[in-house]
Write a structure and sequence with these properties.
Elements lengths: L6 E5 L8 H13 L4 E4 L6 H18 L2 E5 L2 H7 L3 E4 L6 H8 L4 E5 L4 H9 L4 E4 L16 H10 L4 E3 L9 H6 L3 E4 L1 H4 L4 H9 L4
Parallel strand pairs: 1-2, 1-8, 2-3, 3-4, 4-5, 5-6, 6-7, 7-8
Helix pairs in contact: 1-2, 1-9, 2-3
Length: 208
């Protein structure tokens, strides 16, 4: 199992992506608070802006020792030499991403609460899987709920890192960690906080 894929997995919010200064400052604060993985997720800016931001964050994460994951865009991940790519249900095939990015780049896959999708992702070469949402989520309020049973089954059957996502706070994360989650993903829980570094530290304190 990839030991680097553990701890707080911080995903950039839409508000954070409004300016490069805000984005860089926020991500730097999250890493200072203990985020081990940063995912750049940006659904609002145009392609040249997203590429510029991704290059900035790649440098920042490399200098700070955090993993840098690009959401959805395998071409961008290749251009900026990202550590990884995260794929949703409609974001392309693992095989295509692997062919473009090579064996050393981490590929993660969103599985909602679907164990069979997670098992298929493992067979296709995914490096980690994500389950959720587990609680009410501001980022994806209409996403289907995932259950603890699916998480437990995934832990029993997969030798891959598992990320839990969806409305998770430091106060409600314990059942997910007990059920087998290696990473806790947060968007607003980190980047919506007045003090991003302190918020990240609270999540990071849940892990060894």
């Amino acid at each position: 199992m990839n030991n680097a894929l553990s701890g707080l997995y911080a995903i950039t919010s839409q508000a954070l992506c409004e300016t490069p200064q805000r984005l860089q400052a926020g991500v730097a604060a999250a890493i200072a608070g203990g985020a081990r993985v940063i995912q750049y997720r940006d659904k609002q800016n145009d392609a040249p802006t997203r590429l510029d931001y991704a290059k900035r964050l790649r440098r920042l994460c490399r200098d700070a020792g955090a993993l840098f994951i690009v959401n959805d865009d395998m071409q961008m991940a290749a251009i900026v030499d990202a550590d990884g790519l995260h794929l949703g249900k409609t974001d392309g095939a693992i095989a295509a991403a692997r062919a473009l990015l090579g064996d050393s780049v981490l590929i993660g896959v969103s599985c909602s609460g679907d164990l069979q999708r997670a098992l298929a992702a493992r067979q296709q070469g995914a490096d980690y899987v994500a389950f959720g949402r587990f609680y009410d989520s501001n980022t994806k309020p209409d996403a289907p709920l995932a259950g603890l049973d699916a998480l437990r089954e995934a832990r029993a059957q997969l030798r891959l890192p598992i990320c839990a996502i969806g409305g998770i706070t430091p106060d409600n994360a314990a059942p997910l960690l007990a059920a087998g989650a290696d990473m806790i993903a947060a968007v607003d829980g980190v980047f919506g906080a007045a003090d991003i570094e302190a918020a990240a530290r609270r999540y990071a304190s849940l892990f060894p």
